[in-house]
């Protein structure tokens, strides 16, 4: 893991290179104010003041250089100076004017690399100086949580199964003095039949389980964080095509988000009674795999006709939500890489977000906007509940209709939410298909910072 704490330092006037961040609209005036050598260097680089222009600018001596970045991103954007964090030579830097603020996060994450399978050339740290030292600790924690999500999602399924997710939760519990409970085997089959059904075809050593972590003062408000932990999804007997299976190591992205968010909650010692739940399974194919047409029992008592073995995530979440609800939390948040329909509707950047409580929705989307971690609200449209009707059971897990797939999946989950309990469901991609500054191609945290900002404001 990258040592993020070394990448931000309080500005005490120590030697550092200067970074000029200039908006395109201010470029001409800025350039006119610079000495001749800077204007000459800008002309030699053929810079026009377009967003993304950058250059190393000469100073009085050979080693006395500074950096120019033309940037049209708001000062509140975490990614404003991320391109420099990943490209500048090692050393210390400070902004010519203002404070890096939210940009500190992107600066650090730009220097994070996933190196489990391939080592890269070692590059010394690029240190950013800030006059806001009080923000350093929080930003370092957030960078580490984001990197944790990325690393877990990027890890190959052969190296990250239900047991490894359990180990991640155990490490987190030990670090913060939390209580860890793991249910597997016969108790799982009896108590959480949908989790058992989805994972029962997995090979020895990759058996299904429900991982639970509890932390905090029982007198404080109880909140539940739930993450879909499908460590690999073949689609089951409704097998995915090879193209659809290619990225299914990331189907535990919801669990990665929930683990990282739980870590932030405990590190900040929010005034909550935290309940983290991860139904961890592998949706495999074998002679004992659950079948299309099987009618599954659930922990809640509802019966579910399994119309699609590739709609397994909502099944494991249903049992986990039921368990969380038994302790009467005032808030439930779940994360899941749940539907392709959400990606068709919104693309990779926007988690489809369903909320059953208006004050919660208002606070959540305000938090998302404040920290630059966008979410997009989708409807819990009651009229589509009828698409979940079954001829032989209480409901089906997947509607026959191809319409509104993300909404019908959310409506399925809503059947397990108690009346009056505030709930948010984030159908997140957990993946970035192409690189952007500070955000490499691969696993990514989408919705983590928004939900953290919500919880910090509400319970901090």
TrEMBL record:
Pfam families: Peptidase_M17 (PF00883), Peptidase_M17_N_1 (PF21337). The keyword ATP-binding does not apply. This is Leucyl aminopeptidase family protein. InterPro entries: Leucine_aapep/pepB, Macro_dom-like, Peptidase_M17_C, Peptidase_M17_N_1. GO terms for biological process: proteolysis. The keyword Protease applies. It comes from Sphingomonas alpina. Transmembrane segments: none annotated. It comes from the Bacteria. GO terms for cellular component: cytoplasm. Keywords: Aminopeptidase, Hydrolase, Manganese, Protease. Belongs to the peptidase M17 family. One of its GO terms (molecular function) is manganese ion binding. Residues 308-315 form the Cytosol aminopeptidase domain. PROSITE patterns: CYTOSOL_AP.
